[in-house]
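Final report, Chapter 2: Outcomes

The project's central promise was a pipeline that accepts a single protein chain and returns its three-dimensional structure in a standardized token representation, suitable for archiving and comparison. That pipeline is now operational. To close this chapter, we reproduce one record exactly as it appears in the project archive, with the input sequence first and the structure output second.
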Amino acid sequence: MDTTLIPQQIAVERAKLTVWTAGSGPAVLLVHGFPDDHSVWRHQVPALVQAGYRVVVPDMRGCGESSMPRRVSDYRLAYQIEDLQTVITALGLDEVHLVGHDLGAVIAWQFAMAHPALVRSYAALSVGHPRAYATDGIKQKLMGWYAAVFQVRGLGELLMSGREWALGRRLLGNHPEVEHWARRLKAPGRLTAAINFYRANIGPLMLRRDYPPVTMPVMGVWSDGDRYLTESQMTRSEAMVSGGWRYHRVQGASHWLQLDQPEQVNRLLLDFMAAHPVR
């Protein structure tokens, strides 16, 4: 079975997204975070396609091969949420299994609440419900210190790329993926575009707000080597979900659990989606 991702351009508000697809069957929408692009899902795509799913993997605005709007405001959550809706509509899909990681999970939680009819199930990797994250206490605030640094234009870029990416390697835990990130983000404007999500959304990320219940089945997955997120901001998300909740802790993985423990993550995703087939 051919698992090769095929790109296409989809126009969204103020940007053009490169969206990669493979396979056929019920659709799975994979949403990456920072500082990633679609390739962070490279271990999941073959497993999902071989299991009979159609995989849809966008490079989010500013990332990968998608366009880079210049204004910070163009990276607001409202645009990112509607980007996903536009992708689903453009591909002629009725509903999707949604999977988000890192900032992709932030977007996906909001999308699931804004467009519940389009989401059959949601798997949140690493990042819990926005209210659980915002109210998790001082430990989580300290673990997310870099988001405050990213607010200062130039300083955030220095934190990532300074001393020929030595600073970024340290921030990112010397993860093997750093060399890929550095190559991608050295292109003119790419690093600033990637960081602009934080600059455009510091309020929604940090402030407590009221949200509608999450009405589809949700699976939260957190890894015990995560340097940026507490386990409690994920487990406390259960109280915000009315459509059914399950939780899994992945052992021996960094924040990038889908890269570090792909077989375990793939098994969790496939079991969860099989339990909630597309209607």
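Archive annotation: The two ends are 25 Å apart (CA to CA).
This record, like all others produced under the grant, will remain available to the consortium after the project formally closes.
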